[in-house]
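User: Quick sanity check before I run a bigger batch. Here is a single chain. Can you write out its predicted 3D structure?
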Amino acid sequence: MESDHEYCVINPTPKIHAMIVAAGRGSRFGASIPKQYTLLQGQTLLQHSVARLAESAYIDKCLLVVAADDSTAQTLSFAQTIYYAVGGAERWQSVQAGVEAILNAGANKEDLVVIHDAARPAVPTHDIDAVIQAAMLETYGAILATPVADTLKQSYLAANMLSNPEYEAASPHKPLNAQPKLANSKSGQNTLHAYAQKTIDRSHIWQAQTPQVFRLEQLQQVLSYVAEHNLAITDEASAFEHLELPIRLVTGSRQNIKLTYPDDAIVLAAILAAQS
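Assistant: Done. Predicted structure follows.
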């Protein structure tokens, strides 16, 4: 796929297809079950996320991409019509499987696909509609994101400074990026810790969310590029970034957090209660 922005003719009223990726295990969450089946307010995260998509007037059914050994999803009741595809080992492989399933079902290459995380059950409906409407006006797509507000630190690893006999205190004449020497084995202090190296300029830093919305054909092509070049990506938009293809950022709500760690469940429960 070329990266010099070969613009296609945009269909102003494309059909909308929805996909929720639910094939992961959620190892960072540390539970005995996949995190998409965590219960909050009497429903699983997956059920909440499907219900949010169902509230959008643009979406009338949803593809669930699940693991090959998933035995839970089809036992649940959902707020809209559901059909299924089997995902892969990596997220992008699951999305690729979902795209193929949608295209094989007769979708037009200029249609839009809305990709949402099962672990983001609190996305407001107006955010879903806003990112879909933005993607309709773009050649490649649009994603929800929030400007980073917190101070960000870049770190380096080193042994404890006070226990390191080779440590030399920083001076005004030392370069800011100079890192202290690591403790040698004689000091007995070889445990590494993170230290702040510098504060990152956050003026153009955004935190990506979902849904992310793309033209089906364009997404299919960039995922093929990812597979061909064995690229590491963390979301679908980053596949487009590898080819320097523009993806629009649409400011989303800070309520749209993702359940990643156990503490997130406490925050999400409070958000869902406030929204109900």
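Helices lie at 45-54, 91-104, 125-136, 216-229, 236-242, 262-275.

User: Great, the batch can go ahead then.
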